[in-house]
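Inverse folding, one chain.
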């Protein structure tokens, strides 16, 4: 192995970070197919998106904020459903005629 390749690999090892994400099969295959049509890899697209977020690009930030709102709404709905169940349980145990 030549010295330049060893140096590049060492620099990549020291400066690049690796992530692991889980996608549903449908999301993965649809995303991969779409990118394949343009000759892109998931790595390239995720790297580009992450750099846009880091640079506070408005469009990328909108996507992140949309994800945040979806997550928040999901949590709120879950809590609201649990509170409703608890309220119904409490009401069902109360006899208004006692």
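Residues assigned per position:
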């Amino acid at each position: 192995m030549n010295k330049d390749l060893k140096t590049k690999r060492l620099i990549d090892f020291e400066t690049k970070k690796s992530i692991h994400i889980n996608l549903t099969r449908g999301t993965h295959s649809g995303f991969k197919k779409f990118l394949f049509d343009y000759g892109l890899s998931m790595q390239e697209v995720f790297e580009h998106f992450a750099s846009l977020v880091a640079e506070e690009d408005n469009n990328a930030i909108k996507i992140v904020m949309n994800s945040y709102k979806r997550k928040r709404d999901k949590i709120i709905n879950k809590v609201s459903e649990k509170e409703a169940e608890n309220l119904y349980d409490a009401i069902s145990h109360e006899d208004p005629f006692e």
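The helical segments are 3-15, 25-37, 42-54, 58-93. The chain has two domains: 25-55, 58-98.
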